[in-house]
Every structure is written in C-alpha cells, then in structure tokens.
Write a structure and sequence with these properties.
single chain, disordered N terminus, 2 strands, mainly alpha, two-stranded antiparallel sheet, 375 residues, 1% strand
Amino acid sequence: MKKKLFSFVALSIMSVCSWGQGLFSASEVKSVMKRVADWQIANPAKGAEHDDLSWTHATLYMGMIDWAELTEKEDGDNSYYNWLRSIGKRNAWQVGRYMYHADFIAVGQVFIDMYHKYGDRNMLLPTMARTEFVINHPSASTLKLDYRNMVTLERWSWCDALFMAPPVYAKMYMLTNDRKYVDFMNQEYKATYNYLFDKEKQLFYRDHRYFGKKEANGERVFWGRGNGWVLGGLCEILQALPRNNMHREFYQDLFVRLSNRMASLQGEDGYWHASLLDPKSYPSPETSATGFIVYALAYGVNEGLLDKEQMIPVIKKGWEALVKAVEKDGKLGYVQPIGADPKKVTREMTEVYGVGAFLLAGNQMYKLVSTHLSK
C-alpha cells in the first residue's frame, strides 16, 4: 500500500513538474499559438458574418497582429504581417458598410496598428474618415429604443460594442492628440456603462432585453462572452492610453473591478461558462469567454494592475483549460457560435473570434511566463 501511495505521489509530482516546465514555458506557449494561428489561416471562415471587414474577423486580426509582432520580434518571421497586409490591400483598408454600427468599425483598430508599423496613410484614412463623420454627425438615437430597431444599434447599446468601437477612438486620440476622439469615447462609453452595468452583481448585461430575465437557478442572465468582450475592450483602451493620461482612471478602475469579479467566477474546470451565474445549466467549456478573460487577467498582472499572487493561479488554470480545447491540428474547439446570450457549446464548434481571443491571451501568457513563471 505504501509503495502504491509513493508511486502515485511521485507520478503526481512528475506530472506537475512537466506541466509547469512545458505548458507554462515560453516555447510551448508559442508552439500552441502557432498551431492555432496556422490552422485558422488554412481554414478560413465563410458566410455572411465572415467577410473580411466583419467584427468576427476584426477580432481574429486583433489576436493575429499581436502574434505577428511576437513572431517578427522573436523569429524574424514577417509572414503574419504579410497576411494582414494582403487583407487590408484587397479591401483598400476600408471599414464596414454601416456608418454608426460599432461592429463595422472594429477592423479599424488593426488598421491603425498597421499604420503605426508601416506609416502608409492609405491604411489610416478610411478609419479616420469614419470616426470624424460619426463625431461630427452623432446619431440621434437613444439607448432605450427597441433593440431590434436598427437605429438603436447606432449607439453602443449592447456590451459587445465596448470591444468593437471604443478602442478605435482611443487609438485615434493618441495618434492625433485631438481631444474630440477621447471626448466622444468617454461620452458614449459612460452612457453604455450607466445603462448596462449592474452595480450589485458587478457585471454587464448584454443589452436591455436581459434586464428582467432569470436563469434556471433564479440568477440574472449575465453572458460569459459578453463580459469577456467588455474586459477585452478595456485591455485595448488601456494599452492605447498612457499611464499619466487624465482620461485613463475610469477605464482602469472598471478594468480592476471587473477583472476581480470575473476571477471569482471561474469554474472548477478552469473555464468561464456561457452563463456566469448559472454554470450548472451550461456546464460545457466555452473558449471565447475564457480567452478574453485570460487575456485580461494576464495583461493586468503584466502591467501591475492586478494582484499577482491572487491572479496567477486563476490565469494558469484558465490557460491550461484553453490549451485542452486545441486539437492536434490546431483547431480551437468549444467556441460558442454567434449569439447574444448563453447557449450550449460542443467541442467541434469553432469561430474566428474565439481564435482571436486565444491569440490575445497567448500573447499576454508569453509575456507572463517570460517574467513571472520562468523563475
């Protein structure tokens, strides 16, 4: 009996050691990111929601540009930048077709970053034209119209929009030093925050349709990916605004509050589930929410905004869960399909925005393991 117990303990220790040295090594993080990125490029998404300039692909590009920066810096590999440039060129660096809708400017975040790298004004001008028109001709809509009315979507009336549009205005502000961009962002973001943020639960409703809805266990409906969208958007805003910027405090405080709240809602399996307050009704893994949240928590630790001792175990558990959802060929599974609320998820489900979230998380994990977990 003692011999069996010793063997079990020894095996457990060996497993933990290899887990720490492998899964949480810089080389292994890069390896799994490459598999996921390469699989997605080789297996492009198709359909009405997947044109080059869609919000779905914008999210993928945001993860891909972080990956491109990492691989060029570490390996001298500029193939991922070239892939992004080819997409921009064939679309003349335009943004989406709807003037006010947040989803249709999300790709501007990546095009601004590409402009920073290459200095080609063609990469910037369509995004600049769109943001200037919206600022100079603001929508007359309110947040409280029927959500199914397209006019309501001219404002940031759903929480996903806080990932899609605000970082564009933050980046334009830093690029031009013109306050009109940040003033517009502050006004619209705070209106959405005041409308959709539940101060008791410290979570965002997806949109006003969910104010009175309840889950099977009687809890309110708070969507995992919806709150992940908000956290991911806050990361992008904070990376755009310098530490000493007068507009940063609100976004940093919200980031810390929401990050701490989300850390408390992680499942035993390491994932954040489709329904944050009723995971038993949605027990399957969900990698798009988990990807955005791991991205945010790792970024927070890397930037000294979140408590390292508290967050690193949560982050490690979340990253391990994400890696488990990657097939040998690099396909990322358990991504909830396009929607607005919690739904069932299966392993074969994948989506480009889930891959984008994974790559964003991986980039911050690479920084984390290089500074905190390799010692």
